[in-house]
Design goal:
The structure is a homodimer.
Chain A: E1 11-14, E2 34-38, E3 54-60, E4 70-71, E5 82-83, E6 96-107, E7 110-113, E8 123-129
Chain lengths: 137, 137
């Protein structure tokens, strides 16, 4: 393995959210619906995604800083600083976003999801189903 | 942004699991405890991780194939093939592992977690706290 694995984005977020500074911090804090626009090359990977599915979307938070190791959680200047592995701050060594969302529409290689706090243009890395109980896997 | 963002692993898994073919498929299916051995350079990022914390560990599944778009879930040859975005197969365009675990011990830059199905040597990318209800964030 290369010591520095390379990510290959499989699509982009298409959203009304433009400014990271004013975007909701989490999807369940008022984030809007958004489209995941996938590259045609991965059409087979998404062919079984269906309306109603609950999935985890992984994104690359390309506006984030990678040199931050401690931060004030939720930008609260009165809070004590925490190591970033104890926060959900986008600023961290590998700024991968995790977004648990539900699929509300599909249109070819476009998939619409609810409550996504990632801004317009954010690269999409992966989609995984939310795991149910062991017996249903 | 570069079209191909580069990951920088922040540590490695140290585990008795050696062979991906016989490793449990998910952490709650009999996976053992394992150490996350972090690079000294990120010590500040993990300084607030504590025994009892429930966290999501992100790994780079470096034994996985990146050219697989459809697969038979759970290697069941009688099951219909599914697009990989509808499965948890490690074989996918960006093979990032998500592991929800609990911290059972810490020792400097070594963090021991329960139920981790990643094999020995797997690169660690990130650790995030499991999010509780909105009011507790």
């Amino acid at each position: 393995m290369s010591p520095h694995p390379e990510l290959r984005p499989v699509g982009r977020v298409e959203s009304a959210l433009i400014d990271p500074a004013t975007a909701p911090r989490q999807g369940d804090e008022g984030a809007p619906e958004a489209w995941l626009v996938f590259d045609a090359a991965v059409a087979d990977a998404l062919r079984d995604l269906a309306v109603g599915d609950q999935v985890v979307v992984l994104t690359w938070l390309d506006r984030a800083r990678r040199d931050v190791l401690v931060t004030q959680p939720r930008n609260d200047v009165t809070a004590p600083e925490l190591g970033v592995f104890s926060t959900r701050s986008p600023d961290r060594p590998n700024p991968i976003g995790l977004h648990t969302v539900r699929i509300v529409a599909t249109d070819g290689t476009r998939v619409r999801v609810d409550g996504l706090e990632a801004v317009d243009g954010t690269p999409v890395l992966d989609v995984k189903p939310v795991l149910g109980p062991i017996a249903e896997r």
